[in-house]
Hints:
The complex is a heterodimer.
Chain A: H1 3-30, H2 36-63, E1 85-86, E2 89-90, H3 91-108, H4 119-142, H5 146-150, H6 158-176, H7 192-211, H8 219-247, H9 252-266, H10 275-296, H11 307-325, H12 328-331, H13 342-371, H14 380-385, H15 387-392, H16 412-416
Antiparallel strand pairs in A: 1-2
Chain B: H1 6-15, E1 22-28, E2 35-39, E3 42-46, E4 49-55, H2 63-74, H3 101-105
Helix pairs in contact in B: 1-2
Amino acid sequence: MNSADTAWLLVSTALVLLMTPALGFFYGGLVRSKNALNTMMMSFAALGFVGIGWALAGYSLAFSGDGPWIGDLGHALLRGVDLAPHGTVPHVLFFSYQGTFAIITAALISGAIVERMRFGPYLVFLSSWALLVYAPLAHSVWGGGWLARLGALDFAGGTVVHVNAAAAAGVAAWVLGPRKDHARQAMLPHNVPFTLLGAGLLWFGWFGFNAGSALGANASAALAFTNTLFAPAATLTVWTLLDFARGGRATAVGAATAIVVGLVAVTPAAGLVGPLGAILLGGAAAFPSYFALIWRARTRLDDSLDVVAAHGVGGAVGALLTGVLAQKSWNGTADGLLFGNPRQLAIQAVAVAATVVFSGAMTFGILRAIQAVAALRSTSREEGLGQDVVQHGEEAYSHGEGAILVLASTGREAGSVPVPVPAAGGGGS
Amino acid sequence: MRPDKLNDVLESLFHADVRGLTIQRVQGHGGETERVETYRGTTVKMELSEKVRIEIGVSDHFVAPTVGAILRAARTGTVGDGKVFVLPVEKVYRIRTGEEDQAAVTPVG
């Protein structure tokens, strides 16, 4: 057990947890005001439902046993997850740290299905997806499964988290179908400052995501930390210049998107490439995502908040470039194409393709299974009213005008506050 | 009229001794060219512009100075400056006192 490693992982766990509310703000700002709460709740709900699922079975399916595809139930209900060292940190801490990854990954998918999915079926989907799709993939890369044996490099989760969530998002957007206003009406972000706030907090939390993945306070963490700072900086710079070149103006939504794309792209590479390589990777990652966003907006696929373009394309580019730019002199384990190991690039491509196929197929199956029992979507009329009122009975920006207080009929609440009785006739009993 | 001209107009009306007024934030479309905005891959034309509507009730001999004050202060010379409409009022009551017509729109003190 090492105190420094433990301290850093404690901090990292809190940092990664913050990314999920941050994602809520990022997504929440991009939707229309009538769906703001619902969109943010889709992220916040993951904190509860995926977190508990992770404790009950998810962690075990990912990190117990040594099968090639999926773990076993050896750690189910947290059996054997104790204070004994796991590597150089307490086992419970390793379990918690990994739990925050499951939470953010599942929450990422919500960007594809906002403004139309019913909340109940969403919770069922979220919970089962984390167990049936995230846990096996995490096992195959980090739990000693087949992608790990193949030699796929994924430092902090470029394929497990981002390509995986994006494949699920693409399928979910397709199964649910487009919003009724998609490509008919202009649907504008209702609060761009929220989106910038979310992007900033995501960047902050991402230091825990990438540098924490070194699982210790060491040189590898320092490298990952540095790369997490400079790769998104390069993406932001290139993205802004692209904005200038195409429209003559640098957009704020573009800047927020660029930060996320850069972070996604550097995730698999964080502790494996040198800082100059990371800057190159971040800059290069701007191009495919930038044009994927423009192209997607012209299609019928209503991946509403562009999870595929940002996390799928960005994650795949990051994973492939990791196979190009990885440098043994920095990471001590493997070289990429540029340093004389072309095979690594092929392995990376296999990992990305396998993730897309597995995640896509499983997500399709889960959604169809839920659909057999309950409607996934709100009705068109409900969609018009907005998900906040329909799904949650609340409004994000209520004025309070015309709101008449209805006394609770349970009696208990009404009795707790003395209510003046209008004097009528001969008084009360 | 333009929201960015509101303070100039209020100041100008103040100097012309016009006191009672109500303003509203409104959206409108006149002959102005549309603003183009871009959000990720989506480009939109904003057909409505933010405007301010002022309502002022004045007695007859105050009409010309009031209109003059607005015209002076709200003009930029480009399309979108707005309009002034002068309408007759049938009857005015001051709720507090029950005063009518001219007495009702004459500021107190």
